[in-house]
Amino acid sequence: MLTVWKYPENYSFEGEIRLNVCSIELGLTPNRLLIILAENLSLFEDYQPYQMKNLVDIVLNVFSQTTRHFLGHLRVIKQVSRDIQRKINTALENEYLIQMFNLGESLTYYLNAISNNTAVLTKMLNICDKMQMATEQVEFLDDILIENNQCYKQAEIYSDVLSGLMDARGTLVNNNMNVILKNLTIINTIFLPLNLIASIGGMSEYSSMTRSIDWRIAYGVFGIAMIAIGWVTAIFIGKLGNRQKSSRKLRT
Length: 252
Fold this sequence. Notes:
Helices cover 70% and strands 8% of the residues. It has helices at residues 55-88, 95-126, 135-201, 204-209, 215-251; strands at 2-8, 21-28, 33-37. It folds into two domains: 2-172, Up-down Bundle (Methane Monooxygenase Hydroxylase, Chain G, domain 1), CATH 1.20.58; 178-251.
């Protein structure tokens, strides 16, 4: 039996978030097992759930360990996705959206790899009689196939949820920016008439108009008038915004 098996690479979240997949070539004969790795991978460091008595047992343990690695990476993806979601709620930049996009891209690679592994497991299960596999080995292979299918379903759900969240969070970032621009516009609208009045008050005309009044009283009244105008303008803009919200609700 000669097949190509997909294995998740060790993840690293330093800087750019990416999770990649590498390929392993397995060549199994009655007397020999050939394993070709694209890089230095530790296939047998973790606990082996099945005691290795022959070459088929080694292959089955590689399959089982790979499936458990995929499940472990999916749990990490879920946790990282939650952290990014919390940060993106108040973010105005695209940094966290890019990280979420990278996670979605990694999940696409994972889905393709897990689907490839499912085909390999199904093929091996179909030729178990030709390979003279023991009953325990067939049962273990069937358990690996079930676990691999569950892993695929889980990755598919995460991918769909993450895809929907990317669209929603992108809209949320734009909405946050619109709210800030709206608040800045309101502040500018409030201070616009005040700037005009302050410009007039800073000229000699106001001093000549209030020549007979003490300058402390004149400019005190001038300051109070500016505060009152700003307060009235803010109330007017607030009521105008409430009317627009009410009209939108009636339309919907």
